Amino acid sequence: MERYREIGLKLTPQRLAILEYLDGNTSHPSAEDIYSCVKKKFPTMSFATVYNTLETLRKRGQILELTIDPDRKRYDPNIHPHNHLICLRCKTIVDVDLDFEIPIPDEARKSFDVLGNHIEFYGICDKCKKGGE
Ligand code: ZN
Ligand code: MN
């Protein structure tokens, strides 16, 4: 929690609950997911509080915003470079902790400093495969 104080985030009990929910969370929750969980503890909390806190964290580089799910933005407290795999049916997102060496054409390199990449894989997860359709 020290690191949040250092970035000048005022730590209200509500915000603490959001940070606790995110800490070590690998489910890539949406703002709605976070809201419905934290609301159980703080029934008066508004969705805007959750959303604004997430935006503040994102702007300060403390969480990643993933746009891999076209239905809703998802958040990732793991800010180290990694890739993702999404199930097209249930929208589960899992981490792919592998580096892929993808060559960038020399032509593009001349005019652009490439600082990173993010690879999105699409598929059907085991659960959905077994559930069948
Ligand atoms: Zn699935
Ligand atoms: Mn991730």
- CATH class of the largest domain, please? Mainly Alpha
Strand order of the largest sheet: 4-3-5
What spatial form do the alpha-carbon principal axes imply?
A: flat
Q: Quickly give the structural class.
A: alpha+beta
Straight-line N-to-C gap: 45 Å
What name does the CATH topology of the largest domain carry? Arc Repressor Mutant, subunit A
Would you tell me the overall average pLDDT?
Answer: 91
- Uncertain segments are none
Structural domains: how many? 2
Ligand list: zinc ion, manganese (II) ion
| Gyration radius from CA atoms, angstroms | 17 Å
SSE topology sketch:
Layout: H1 2-6, H2 13-22, H3 31-38, H4 47-59, E1 64-66, E2 74-76, E3 83-87, E4 93-96, H5 106-111, E5 120-123, H6 126-131
Parallel strand pairs: 3-5
Antiparallel strand pairs: 1-2, 3-4
Helix pairs in contact: 2-3, 3-4
